[in-house]
Structure formats: C-alpha cells, structure tokens
C-alpha cells in the first residue's frame, strides 16, 4: 500500500474508532493537541506532510483531544500562530495533557531538532526550536507534554539553515510548582551528524511519513505486550510501550521499501507507565520478524557492564531487549555504529602527564598552531608531544587562579575553547569534525594524583564509554521519575573519586541529570565541583542554576556543543556568543570553524 493510500485508510479507520471509543469515555482527562503539517518551505522539495498531519489530527480527535490543526494547504504556518495555539491551552490552567505533532522539513543543530515553518529559511525566525520549547514546556503547568516529530531530517547546509534561529512555542510563564513530564517521539535520533542526508536525498528516499504510519498503527493493531487495562478507561497503549515497537516496525518498513535507513526512531519517555495518548483498537499477537533491532542504549549498557559501572538503564534485560537479540548482536552493533572505534580512540589518547606548572593539555589528532589563556594566565605550545600526542600546551595560571579559559587553534584554522583546571591535564581528542572528547586527569606531579591513581583505569574506561555514548546521543537516565532518581544516585557513585567529582564525568552527568529532571543532582555536582576545584565549569553552572552564574566560571562559553542550544532559553545569550554559534562544527565538544576562530581571536581582549 502506498503511503498516501495508507494514511487515507488510517483516517477512515480513525473515524470508526471515534464511534467505538466514545462509549468508554475520557471525561476525566482534559487533553489538547497542536498538529502541524508543512509541505512547502522556500526553495525546498515539496513534501506530503499535510497528509500525515491530517491523519494524526483525525485520530487524536477520536481520542477526545481538542485538536488545533495547522497545515499549510490552508495558509502559511507561522511561529506566532503555533505559539498562540500552544499558549491558549497552557493559559487555561486545566489541561492534563498536551500533544505537539510536526511533519515537515527539519534539521539538527547540536542535539537540538528544528522544525521549519512556511517562511523558513529566508526568514530565519520561522522555525521551532524543539529543545528550547521543551525546556519551557517543563514549567508550563500541564502534567504531561508529548512531542511527536516526523521531520524529514536533512543536513543544515542543504537546507540553507545555517543561520536559522527560530523560536519557542511555549510561553515563558516562570517556574511552575511541578515539573511536567516530557515525552518525545522522534522519527530519527539526535546526535551523529554524519547520518544526516542532503535534502534531495532525504525526500527521494521517502522516509518521512513512515514514522507517522507506524505510530498510528501501534494503536490500531497493538500487540499483546503493548497494552494495559485501566479501570474506567479500557485497554490503552501506554507511551512507554511504544519504544521497541516503533524501532522494529519502522526498520521493517523501510527495508520493505528498499530505503537506505540512516537512523532509527528516538523515543524518550519520562512519564509514568499508565500515561497514554490513545486506546487499543484490535489487540494482536506479537508478530515474529527476522529483523533484529538493537537499541543504542543496550550498546551503552553492555559497555558499562564490562567496566563494572553501577549505573545502567536495564537495556540488556529480557523485558527491554527483543527476544531475537543477543548480547553478541549488541556487541556487533557496538562495532557497526562506530561506538567501539570512538571508545578506543579516546582510551588511546589518555596518558598520565605532568607539566612543571601542573596544568596543561595534551592534543591528539591535530596540531596546535596557537594557544592563549585569558585572565593573566599564559599558554605555551610545546611541539612534538610524545606517543600519540600531536602537541602539548602548558598553562601557567595567574597567581592564585584556580583555572582559566584557554583558546587553542589547530593547524587547519579551526579551534576550541576549553577550561584549564589547576592541577589537571586535559587530554583533547580531535577527529575530522572537531573535538570528540576532553578527559581531565590530575597531573602526575600534583597533590591530586595519588587519590586518582588507584581509580585511573576505571575512570579512563568510564570517560571513553560516556563520551562515546554522548557522541551518539545515547547517554541518558531513562524511566519514570522514581526510577530516574534511583539511577541518578548510581550515576553519582560512578562519577565520584573519593570525596571529589571527576571534572569530565561531572560535565556529562550534569547534562544527563538535567535531561532527566534531576535538578537537585545537577546542583549537587555543581557544589561538589566548586568546593573542590574552587571554580565553576560553565555547563554545570548553566544547568544547575538555570543561567544564574556566580563566582569564577570557566570557560566563557559551553564546553559541550549541545550546551550552546541552552544559552538563549536560559538567558545567557549575547551578541558575541550568538555570532560564534553560527560557526560551530558538528562535534561533541565545542569546536569553531576557521571563520569563527578568526572572529574569536579579534574579540579575545573583550572577553571577561
């Protein structure tokens, strides 16, 4: 069946479902939905996204949602129009659930997905920032907010989207007394920019629309292990039950249509097990397919298990891993995704080093052409580093300084901004797209070395696993709120060394805690690190205190590329940072292109 025929049949079936479901009733829930479909974006191939949007709108209406359909076959879809529709639901103050669905052209910037509206990319404001909108959604007062994205994901350069900044669709009403649970269903996962296709290839392969078809099918013909009976409601398909089904079904369908699958769906559910969007129509027995779908979180859990980490996401358990997938399959997938190669590269770069100053950097994979430190500190490049090092950069901190911002430019003209931390050597790994990891290890001639020495092997392995997972967008704390709290404590045990918090792991953990709504854990990392290091790392402080910086903060910008997407929504943007953001390379750690480094070098004297 062709996609348009399938969606038309889906709409007809939804009308039937409407009649049968009204008898069960959902009077106890007040639920709204904004459904967006954009076929035409300036100068780009036309999509059939409105077909998907209309099918979803019909289905949600049958589930007693109040639906606002914004499709461009009825007029241009604007950021203001979407914002007004969302704000109307938010400001009522009585909503139990809000669903936001999008079908159209999209792209990634860091870990943020952008949805392009009718006026984009000519009007750089006419796009929706999913990450920033989700940040504001947490404080919207609605208990459950669900984002569903069937964006036809393309590389930003092919969309002429490099300067698209877009905006938010949730009102900035300030902190709420309770944090909303945010569930995300995305056609393709965040991270891994190498997977992005030029827009012409994305449209030609026809992947967009399959995700929506699979999503709707999950409610019309769910399998026995996907359903749950709620008293007074009936048989429903909980959000959490959709994860494995969507990954397997989408993979199966793209193979049937001979589409080159570049990415699997990304499902992140933080709500409780009984939270659902729709009821089950016809429950079927689980279908047996030869296809094997190995979740990325199982790759991460296997690596964590192998090094004896306490934290994991139970991804290797029989309830979360398909029956036809073994640990051998997980291990093989770890190789094909590049996870193992990234991990091995990071491990090979880590070596205990010392500088007479006890502070500096070792660089692998690039040659340092220039380096300078702010705040009266001094950076000196030492050519011909030993072993795998391309260069060493010694840092002489200003008297009494616990650390400072350091800018390092590589021989190809690109460069990075890092934090020099007193008594630590940062091992910098540079790949073809930029800095893939920075691991902070105590200088072997510092007072810190002895306390780290006994844990060195474990920490090096943990650095490599976490960085590799983060580069694939797979370092998360999953589960409902209570489960995430338990897992968060285990992660806390892993990132600590005696009474200290490992600087590298502290940064990664801060993002994982933030994403899991464990704000007190982010603040605990901040307090541990600031007390021990006598300085504050930008990323940790930004997330811990939502932009309210205090004390000595280094560097002057986020260490991780994903952190740049938080600057605006957390009130930390500035003209200088906004300009530099346009020059970020698609790397895990902040890396600026040649033009960005030129700009930074000129303005360095004005950086506090």
From TrEMBL:
Residues 1-25 form the signal peptide. Gene3D superfamilies: 3.40.50.1460. GO terms for molecular function: cysteine-type endopeptidase activity. Keywords: Signal. One of its GO terms (biological process) is proteolysis. It comes from the Bacteria. The keyword Transmembrane helix does not apply. Residues 32-270 form the Peptidase C14 caspase domain. It comes from Rhizobium leguminosarum. This is Peptidase C14 caspase domain-containing protein. The lineage of its organism: Bacteria, Pseudomonadati, Pseudomonadota, Alphaproteobacteria, Hyphomicrobiales.
């Amino acid at each position: 069946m062709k996609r348009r025929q399938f969606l038309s049949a889906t709409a007809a079936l939804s009308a039937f479902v409407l009649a049968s479901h009204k008898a069960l009733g959902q009077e106890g829930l007040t639920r709204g939905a904004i459904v967006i479909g954009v076929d035409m974006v300036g100068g780009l191939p036309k999509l059939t996204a409105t077909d998907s949007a209309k099918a979803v709108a019909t289905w949600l209406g049958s589930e007693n949602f109040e639906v606002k359909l914004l499709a461009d076959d009825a007029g241009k879809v604007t950021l203001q129009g979407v914002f007004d529709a969302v704000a109307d639901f938010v400001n009522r103050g009585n909503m139990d659930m809000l669903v936001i669905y999008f079908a159209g052209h999209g792209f990634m910037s860091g870990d943020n997905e952008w949805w392009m509206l009718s006026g984009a990319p000519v009007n750089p404001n006419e796009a929706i920032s999913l990450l920033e909108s989700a940040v504001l959604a947490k404080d919207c007062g609605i208990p459950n907010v669900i984002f569903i994205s069937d964006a036809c994901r393309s590389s930003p350069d092919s969309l002429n989207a490099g300067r698209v900044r877009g905006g938010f669709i949730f009102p900035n009403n300030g902190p709420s007394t309770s944090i909303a649970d945010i569930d995300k269903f995305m056609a393709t996962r965040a991270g891994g920019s190498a997977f992005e296709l030029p827009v012409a290839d994305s449209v030609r392969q026809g992947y967009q629309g399959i995700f929506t078809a699979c999503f709707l099918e999950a409610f019309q013909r769910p399998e026995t292990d996907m359903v749950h009976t709620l008293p007074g409601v009936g048989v429903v398909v909980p959000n959490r039950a959709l994860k494995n089904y969507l990954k397997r079904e989408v993979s199966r369908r793209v193979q049937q249509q001979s589409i080159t699958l570049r990415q699997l769906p990304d499902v992140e559910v933080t709500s409780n097990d009984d939270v659902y969007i729709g009821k089950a129509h016809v429950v079927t027995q689980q279908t047996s397919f030869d296809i094997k779908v190995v979740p990325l979180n199982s790759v991460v859990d296997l690596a964590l298990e192998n090094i004896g980490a306490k934290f994991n996401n139970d991804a290797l358990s029989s309830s979360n891993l398909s029956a036809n997938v073994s640990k051998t399959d997980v291990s093989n997938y770890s190789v094909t995704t590049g996870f193992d190669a990234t991990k091995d590269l990071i491990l090979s770069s880590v070596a205990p080093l010392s500088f007479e100053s006890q502070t500096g950097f070792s660089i692998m994979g690039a040659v340092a052409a220039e380096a300078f430190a702010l705040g009266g500190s001094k950076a000196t490049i030492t050519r011909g580093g030993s072993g795998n090092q391309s260069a060493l950069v010694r840092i002489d901190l200003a008297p009494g300084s616990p650390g400072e911002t350091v800018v390092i430019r590589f021989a190809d003209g690109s460069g990075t901004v890092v934090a020099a931390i007193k008594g630590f050597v940062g091992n910098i790994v540079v790949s073809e797209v930029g800095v893939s990891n920075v691991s902070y290890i105590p200088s072997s001639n510092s007072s810190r070395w002895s306390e780290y020495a006994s844990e060195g092997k474990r920490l090096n392995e943990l650095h490599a696993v976490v960085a590799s997972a983060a580069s694939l967008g797979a370092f998360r704390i999953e589960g409902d709120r209570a489960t995430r709290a338990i897992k968060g404590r285990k992660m806390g045990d892993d990132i600590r060394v005696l009474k200290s918090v490992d600087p590298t792991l502290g940064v990664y953990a801060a993002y994982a805690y933030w994403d899991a709504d464990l704000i007190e854990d982010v603040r605990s990392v901040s307090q541990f690190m600031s007390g021990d290091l006598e300085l504050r790392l930008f990323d940790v402080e930004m997330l811990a205190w939502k932009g309210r910086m205090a004390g000595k903060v280094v560097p002057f910008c986020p260490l991780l590329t994903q952190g740049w997407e938080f600057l605006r929504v957390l009130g930390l943007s500035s003209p200088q940072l906004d300009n530099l953001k346009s020059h970020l390379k698609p790397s895990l750690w902040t890396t600026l292109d040649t033009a960005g480094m030129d700009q930074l070098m000129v303005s360095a004297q004005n950086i506090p």
